[in-house]
Amino acid sequence: MTSTLKGITLKGSAELVAEFFSFGINSILYQRGIYPPETFTRVTHYDMSLQLTTDSKLKNYLTNVVTQLKEWLFECTVQKLVLVITCLETNEVLERWQFDIECDKSAKESSAPREKSIKTIQDEIRSVIRQITATVTFLPLLETPCSFDLLIYTDKDLAVPEKWEISGPQIIDQSEEVRLRSFTTSIHKVNSMVAYKRTDSV
Amino acid sequence: NMDLEDDTTVLTTLKSFNSFISHTEPPQRLSEQSAGIGNLQSQYKRSMELLEAADRVRSKNRYLQLDQEKKQMELSHKRARFELEKTASDSARDLEHEVDRNQDLLGRIKKLEERETGAAKNLSEQVEANRALRKNLESLNKKLEEQDTKVNTANQTISSLKDEIRELKQKIQNQSSTISTQSLENQELQEQLDLQRRKYQEVSQLCQSFQAAQSSCSEHIIKIKELERRLALQEQDVAIVESVKSEVAKVPDLEKELKRLREDNAFLRESRENCSLLKEEVEGLRRKLERMAKTKEELVNMELEKEVKKPEDLSREVIQIQQREIALKEQNYTLNSRVRSVERSQSELRAELSQQRSKTLEEQKKREAQDSLVRRLQKRVLLLTKERDGMRAILESYDTELAPTEYSPQLSKRLREAEDVLQKTQNHNAEMEVRVLTHMHKLCVHIFFRQKIEDLEAERQRLEEQNNILEMRLERHNLQGDYDPVKTRVLHLKMNPTTVAKQQRQQEVEALREEVTRLRELVRSLQDGGALVHSQDDSSMHTPNLGLSLPPSKEVLDLRKQMESSELRNQRLKEVFQRKIQEFRTVCYVLTGYQMDITTENQYRLTSVYAEHMDDSLLFKKGSNGSMQLMETEFSKTLGEMVALHLHHQKSIPAFLSAVTLDLFSRQTTI
Fold first, then answer.
1. Does A156 contact B505 at a Cβ distance shorter than 8 Å?
2. Which ranges form a coiled coil (chain B) (predicted)?
3. What are the residues facing A85 on neighbouring strands?
């Protein structure tokens, strides 16, 4: 996305972050093999090649989540987005990709756009996605069939929309945590981290 | 007692006197006649004696009386004295009482005097107050009068001002009339002003148009200049282009030269490298050569030396070398010992140095203590000198003022001065004490605060560490995904891939379970169905359970019937065969006299009908070529002759068997 707009507004920032999540989640699903690789197709974005799913049900689900997330980013009520990977046989949580979102609420009051070039933001996002791809090398293999879920941590006094329900945090029992890079649009700051279940070496 | 004694002595003396007298009378009667003269003398003596005795008695009596009187007088004296003393003490007491009363009265008098003085003071004060009040009153009265005069003057001024006001009003009226005339004039002037303004606007418009025309003119001029400039530039460009063209024509030649030069350059560089390499090689070879020459020389020398040297020389050399070695060792030893001694001395010096340092520190401390003592003593000396000076001054004042004037007021004055000095010193003392106390207090407070500060620092460090630990814990929890339920909520879509996958899995599992149960039933029914071949009803009953897996057709029923019939046939055949075999065996046994059993494959056991023991049996084995051979048994061992004869010699088993039968029969019948 090459925008010729100068400066970042709250709406623009929400869109950038939602877009990042859309591509990032697809990347993680492809890298971790949650869905078969043949169900993904390659696209170019952020000056790099990324994988997007072609599965219609999955696409539908992701669109629903990202649209709601965009709304909440605009209202600055969202605190975290978590991608939880669960083993279907044992119902244990094996991996947790957590993205903390810090919103500068002063951008809600003043509508003056912030000075930050889109190119810088895209460079930052690119390095985050690259790092996510690189972390896969040291994560333990997912040998059993797994499924994923997206959890969103929001402010408590928010109204729960239709089709959404309250869930537990689905924290991993005995986990190792790794902090990854972060990027900021000068209105929203996204910190990434991954937690995985410790494998007892045999 | 004295009186009694006196009385008793008086009485006794009287008694004695009386007795004496009585004594003297009888002897007078007896000796009256015998000694008339002598009696007179004796009587005279006796009377003289008696007189003397009486005098004596009288004197004694008188003495006693006097004595008694004296004693009485003494007694009365004592009593009088006693009473006097009593009266004296009483009077003394009275005197004391009077004195006390006097003092009380004096004190009362003093108090009364003081009260009087106080009252007098009060009175004087009151009088002064009274005077002051009177003065106040007078001053207030004066003020009142002044204010009255002021009021009067004010009234006068008011009236004057009112007159002025009237005059001013008249003036105002005059001026208003002048104003109206002037306003009319103003209006006229304004109309003229408007006319002038309109004219001015027209003129300004004309001016503007004129200026616009001028500006357009200037713009045109500028444009013309620019165009001229551009033209000049273009002419320059044309010239440049022509020169560039000529240069471009030269370019291919230049390129060729450049290539050639580059090749030359590369070649030269290579040759230079080769040159440098060759130089290095040359250097290396030269060095080698030198070394070789050296070694050659050395070798030559060595050979020469070897030739020259004889064993003696060698031994001499060896000895020399050894001596050298010894010398060197000695040097080494001396050096080592020197080093050790030096080290020892160094350590000793260090110890001394430390000792000296400690001593100096002690000396310094002592000196400091002494200094402080000195200072304290100096201060004391100062104080004492001051005291002495004061006393001296007092004494001097005493001395100077003693002679001419009175004494007591001086004394009282000096007393007062001394008291003042004492008071001052006491105050000074008190102040110093207070200062010292405050200093001590401050020190204590200081120390206390320092202690507090240290404690607080330690507390702060501890809290900082705790804070760090808690922050780390918090960070860890945040990384793991922990959240504060008061502020945060976790949401997800109801239809999310995990729930969908779980549901699918559940459904699969259910389906699998159902299939498993169904297959089990099928297997069971197959097993049961195989046994029940006879009844069609049963098979028809089973068909609903088997479902689609078995065709409930006629073929199955026919096949089942066939199977059943063939099985029956089998059964019958088995029975028949069994019977026949049994018959045949019994016939064999009866006719041949041997019961033949097959023990194992190709082994036949024969038991004779006339066997003496149950276990007596012959064992025959069928060989690979078909021939029968007798195996050894207990029984066959007893038939050695017959074996030898019939089997080995005659080679006939039937003969052998018959022989055995006959032998056994003969044995039986004889018994």
1. no
2. 95-305, 415-529
3. A95, A148
Q: B230: burial class by Cβ within 10 Å (0-12, 13-18, 19+)?
A: exposed
Q: What does pTM read for this prediction?
A: 0.39
Pick from A176, A179, A153, A177: which is nearest to A166 by CA?
A153
Residue B572's φ and ψ, nearest 5 degrees, are -60, -45
Nearest by CB to residue A153, choosing from B488, B498, B499, is: B488
Give the Cβ contact number of residue B78 at 10 Å: 10
- pLDDT tens figures, B151-195: 999 999 999 999 999 999 999 999 999 999 999 999 999 999 999
Q: Looking at the DSSP assignment, which residues form a beta bridge with residue B629?
A: B621
pLDDT (mean) for B579-586: 94
Half-sphere exposure of B253 (CA within 13 A, CB side): 5
What lies within 8 Å, CB to CB, of B64 at 6+ separation is: B6, B9, B10
Q: What is the pLDDT of residues B221-269, one digit of tens each?
A: 999 999 999 999 999 998 998 998 888 888 888 899 999 999 999 999 9
Q: Which helix (H) or strand (E) holds B332?
A: helix B311-402
Give the Cα separation of B392 and B464 in Å (integer): 70
Q: Which two tokens stand for residue A195?
A: 């937690």
Read off the DSSP letter of residue A95. E
How far apart, in whole angstroms, are the C-alpha atoms of residue A146 and residue A94? Answer: 9
Query: Between chains, do B496 and A149 touch, taking CB under 8 Å as contact?
Result: yes
Q: What is the pLDDT of residues A73-120, one digit of tens each?
A: 999 999 999 999 999 989 999 999 999 999 988 877 777 788 888 899
Interface of B with A in 491-550 (CB under 8 A): 491-502, 505
What confidence tens digit (pLDDT) does each residue in B460-496 have?
Answer: 999 999 999 999 999 988 888 888 888 899 999 998 8
Residues B413 and B419: their CA atoms lie apart, in Å, by 10
DSSP one-letter string for B14-44 = HHHHHHHHHHHHHHHHHTTTTTHHHHHHHHH
Q: Is B472 touching A (CB cutoff 8 A)?
A: no
Partner-chain contact B491 A79, CB within 8 Å: no
- Is B543:B550 a contact under the CB 8 Å cutoff? yes
Question: Rounded distance, CA B237 to CA B243, Å?
Answer: 10
